[in-house]
Amino acid sequence: MAEYKTKLDLRIFDDTTTQTTLLPALSPEMKIYYERELIEMAEGKLVHDQFGDKYPIPRGGGKQIEFRKYAPLDKALVPLDEGVTPKGGNLRVTAIIAEISQYGDWTRLSDMLELTAIDNNILQATKLHGSQAGRTLDTITREILNGGTQVQYAPKIVGGVETEVLSRGALNQNCKLTPDLFFRAAAELETMNAETIDDSYVAIIHPLAAYDLMRNEEWINVHQYAQPENIYKGEIGMIGNVRFVRTSEAKVFQNDTCPGGATNSTGRYGVFSTLVLGARAYGVTEVEGGGLEVIVKQKGYGEDPLSQRSSVGWKATKTAERLVEEYMIRIESLSAYSDRVFPK
User: Fold this and answer.
1) Count of other CB atoms within 10 angstroms of residue 198
2) How far is Cα of residue 271 from the mean position of the Cα atoms in its chain?
């Protein structure tokens, strides 16, 4: 029997603009399936959106969104005159206008790999874009929150002696997170009358920063105090009145030079940001509805006379805004793992 061999040009897998698909036709049911897949993948990454007030994006509502915050009423310390109706006061509301921007990305897929590939490339592309969309939208909110003005720095602790740190550049590897920082942050939020989120304040923390806290005797694991239905996405434990949500997408400020005069092999240090939040500290646009949309186009769509190309992509309108600076505190610290180069 004759043996036939076929050459496969593997360079088609390296093309930066076109990849292939296993989807000869796209039914409405498949469109719904891929849309659900992408949105579910995206929402799983949106930890920083989890605790903000939600403002939906209406269709035809323009490119700006209005966030509103109400000032507390002054104390009524003047006694009432008998039988006399007091003058009364007015509500004070402040509108914060933010511009919505559109984000998105896409991947073009050719028909050729359909004949050779093992994987369902449309599905894989949808999952990858879902992850990309979630990380992108989460980072937009994260960067806005990390621009807050209320900052605490982990103190230097050497031989049990604590020294106050007043700037990011003065941090070194002796400046790690301690339970006292979060007791202090909670006290500051309570002083500003920031309400709790459910029954506590919430801290968003990087896994490598959480490592320093989780070995402390003050730490309580989440399964010791919360029922599964009441656990936040990413929640790992609590200290005092602060519940911790862990995410690798937490902000890491990458210093170009080692702070505090320290040295290491990379010549730089990552400074971890841990956000401690009260209720109504910030607002975000909704992801669903007018927010996140998946676009899957089948072969032959548009200018494709030989039905060679299909595509998978997403787009979303997004913004966030800090509403009450006093209701959020950023704690900056280092850890034993700060000498890495961290992604943006």
Assistant:
1) 13
2) 17
CA–CA gap between residue 220 and residue 163 (Å, rounded): 27
Q: Whole domain around residue 171: which residue ranges? A: 152-282+323-333
Beta strands in 22-176 (DSSP E): 53-55, 64-70, 93-99, 101-110, 151-153, 156-158, 161-163
User: Taking the model in full, what pTM does it have?
Assistant: 0.82
**For the chain, how long is the longest CA-to-CA vector?**
112
Q: pLDDT by residue (tens digit) across 297-341?
A: 877 778 888 878 888 899 988 899 999 999 999 999 998 888 877
Q: Which residue is it, tokens 């646009």?
A: 285
Task: Kindly state whether residue 82 falls inside one of the protein's structural domains.
Answer: no
- Pick from 195, 281, 204: which is nearest to 235 by CA? 204
Has residue 270 been placed in a domain? yes
126: closest CA among 316, 259, 320, 311? Answer: 311
The C-alpha atoms of residue 72 and residue 192 are separated, in whole angstroms, by: 11
Residue 2 lies in a domain: no
